[in-house]
């Protein structure tokens, strides 16, 4: 608790509120003392009015008037004449005199603090101006024990009230800080920890939502940093894979070009009638070399942007893929089947999802066409509470063991002769960018099935 931002803020709030209450307490007690003494002057003046009304009062009545006023004697100065209006024995000499007529704030505070720290009972003289101009001044003598007890009682009530106010204020500020600052900061920290666990997952890139401008600036800076870091990590990963494959690519490319060179030499130096048969081989060899070079360079650039996740109908994407593949089938006996609910909406990048499904369907088409037999490619989909599932199934010859061993590794997981394996590697990477997975559910003589799993919801909700 003490090591948290909200906990320390709570403690500091209590301290500062109490400090503010103490600063208020001192002048409050001084004002209370002033009001107390002025009230005693007013009581004494009222008591003296009885004597003015009747010059002769008995000793019992005079004692009762002084007792009610809580003073020992009353002196009233009227018409430049100083008159002892009421009097009683004073138990001890007068210790101090306080003139309330022109007392300043500093003087009142000083006298109040001195009164609090003097525990012994003293006799003091208090001078003030009579109310309603009933004379020039009024002077009383009184004991300080009642005054000090009243000041202590008032001070205790002020301190208790201050403590309650400070606790309530601190608790409200604690809740406000948690809602306005601590919770958004924890959200940012959560996104950072989640992103560190899987930097390639685009769902883990923070989306700025804070209402506080400083926090929003921090979220936007973090988002920019995460996007740049994701691109840099992809670049590094691809370059590392590319570097490991350079030797193999160079060797294969050299062999392909050597064959093409031999065919070219034969064409240039010979009038052999077999030239017509050699020419297509030359073209195929060069085409394969060019395709391998282009795929390698494209993979090394790592220019894939983070997916722009939107809600889209999956059936439209599958239909677009099938329309393109039907044009490539030509006269081959190959059929396409869609088993996607018309109202099924997924959260994905439309262009990247198209590329993933297109890669899987194209690989299936090429595998079936290579056998020269009829076949079918089917795409189905369903969902549950946690994710969407898309299956691409074909009736092809299945994957060879070597392809299964390095299925999603570039330059190693090719599923057909002459393939580089980049299609599946790129597709798996695109699906990971959505926070999902691309897996091989099964393969054999009766066909192959790949499954795409796209999770629902944001990382922050999980």
From TrEMBL:
**What molecular functions are annotated in GO for this chain?**
ATP binding; phosphorelay sensor kinase activity
Question: Which keywords appear in this protein's UniProt record, sorted alphabetically?
Answer: ATP-binding, Coiled coil, Kinase, Membrane, Nucleotide-binding, Phosphoprotein, Transferase, Transmembrane, Transmembrane helix, Two-component regulatory system
Question: Which Gene3D superfamilies does this UniProt record tie to the protein?
Answer: 1.10.287.130, Histidine kinase-like ATPase, C-terminal domain (3.30.565.10)
Q: Which EC numbers does the record give?
A: 2.7.13.3
Q: Which organism is it from?
A: Shimia aestuarii
Q: Which SMART domains match?
A: HATPase_c, HisKA
PANTHER family, alphabetized: PEROXIDE STRESS-ACTIVATED HISTIDINE KINASE MAK3 (PTHR43065:SF10), SENSOR HISTIDINE KINASE (PTHR43065)
Reactions the enzyme catalyzes = ATP + protein L-histidine = ADP + protein N-phospho-L-histidine
Question: Which parts form a coiled-coil structure per UniProt?
Answer: 215-242
UniProt keyword Transcription present: no
Q: Start and end of every Histidine kinase domain?
A: 248-458
One Pfam family from the record: HATPase_c
Which protein is depicted?
histidine kinase
Which residue ranges run through the membrane?
6-30, 158-181
